[in-house]
Hints:
This protein has two domains: 3-185 and 347-364, 3-Layer(aba) Sandwich (Rossmann fold); 201-343, Rossmann fold. Helix content is 42%, strand content 15%. The protein is built from 14 helices and 13 strands. It has helices at residues 3-6, 21-34, 51-60, 78-95, 125-132, 139-154, 163-173, 214-221, 255-262, 279-286, 297-303, 315-327, 329-343, 348-364; strands at 11-17, 39-45, 63-66, 99-102, 117-120, 157-160, 180-181, 201-204, 228-231, 248-251, 267-270, 290-294, 308-310. A seven-stranded parallel beta sheet has the order 3-2-1-4-5-6-7, with helices on both faces. Helix 8 links the parallel strand 8 (201-204) and strand 9. Helix 2 crosses helix 14. The relative contact order is 0.12.
Amino acid sequence: MSALEAAGALHVLMTADAVGGVWQYALDLAAGLRAHGVRTTIAVLGPAPSMDQRAMAEAAGAEVVVTGLPLDWTASNQAEVKEASHAVARLAAQVRPDLVHLNTPALAADAPFDVPVVAVCHSCVATWWQAVKDGPLPKDFLWRTDLVRRGYAAASRLMAPTLAFAQATAEIYGLAQAPAVVRNGRRDLQGQTRPQDRTFVFTAGRLWDEGKNFAAIDRVAARLSVPVLAAGPLQGPNGVRIEAHHAEPLGRLSDDDVARYLGKQPIFLSTALYEPFGLAVLEAAQAGCALVLTDIPTFRELWEGAALFVDPRDESEAAAAIERLVQDPDARAALGRAARKRAESYSVEAMTEGVLRVYRSVLAGTQHESSLEGAAA
């Protein structure tokens, strides 16, 4: 612990949104930082958090400021993002943090922050497009990508949740130094484990996001002898919507509800084409669920030896892998134990310590010896 932390003097202003995994990341990190004497103020952009999300923030000990500002990926033009960045800078001037932690790096492009800025590369439209689509970036993505590029350049330090994503980010944006790799962590949802006699498949996330490839899960569901339950919204804040024809949609669930489903130890399926980390996978692994994941670099990096991997565009392969696990309870249980063991590596404390190392180096005006903070699985 640094002298600054020991004195309880470190105050971080962190941006977040309540739409996806960044919310869980921010609150788990805030709780972890609090254990080190660090105070966190969370500025929420995009839709306001729900009542259960506000309760989560209170439990994490974070002060929440709902800004009503647009997210960079839902803003209609560059001026809206610039206005949001200046509003966050004004908030920073009011709350006077020692450091600004941007989970939306584009906000650093035009904001006049007078304290060091750490930015996290959680995702971006350029890497999303590379993984999900073909051809050149559409016009609407070009200005967003330019904002992110300038935000990366303006930040004092960058972090990414996996080595694969750090390398992809460095390549696309031409970074001289890859982001420091600080693996995400997730608090254990602590649901009671009650394996069911009847197996089912479970998935969770922003189902409307084409990168999650829920359409493939829906098609896989039509091939299976067991039901597929899908937690998460079918419509996004950007107006994108997807339908469920064979899987059973559950809507957005609270953490407690997700824990109840995972406690039954279903087979967890992700057919994502793009997933810089995947907190939903980690939650399933913590519960001891057998994992069936698409064979993409980030999942391989995190779960090699603790999951079954399938082609993201081959529903028959995914269905066959799931049916084998349905018919073989011992193999399913063994895979679940391997996933739970691996999940121990991705703890909130490990994430917090990695982030604190980055904070300290920035506040001290030094660089890391390596960009691979916490990269060893």
